[in-house]
Amino acid sequence: MKPAREEMFRQVERSLKDDIRPTLGDELKISAFRHMMASLVLTLGRGVGSTFYRAGFDIGVYKAEKHGLKGVDEALDYAVEVFEKTKLGLLNVEEVSEEEVVLTMKESVTADGYDVGEKLCYFQAGFIAGLLQGATGQRWQVKERACVAEGNEECVFVGRVWHDENTWKGGC
Ligand SMILES: [Zn+2]
To answer: Has residue 84 got a pLDDT over 50?
Structure first.
């Protein structure tokens, strides 16, 4: 990880003291978050999804290394816990192997309530991929196969080890 990126994550962590914002605390309304996200989408335009994925991926790798996560199970346990704690969404592990994982998510901070016919949970997908990669030392890619914002009941993520042949075995 680039030193500048790591230093920025450290700055974020240092800023999050127990007594942060004595009156307002450490929470933020989804309305504020979504307006900021909408502005980013308008400003960054096409390809913004991969930027959100990358943002999640980097923080995932950083957290996996910081907490010394080892293996797929530890990465996913941490993902479930941190998604609930930070209110990114309610994650559930559906299938796990050393090479492939399937997770579902309800109450997505980025997608719940939207009906826009496209996927909106790039940050979470990247975060899961970063955790898996940081915890296993293998290259992982996570795709959102279905999203609440497309009219589905829950978001579905499929993660796979990324092999050199650069293809997804069996498609998605
Ligand atoms: Zn979604």
So the answer is: yes
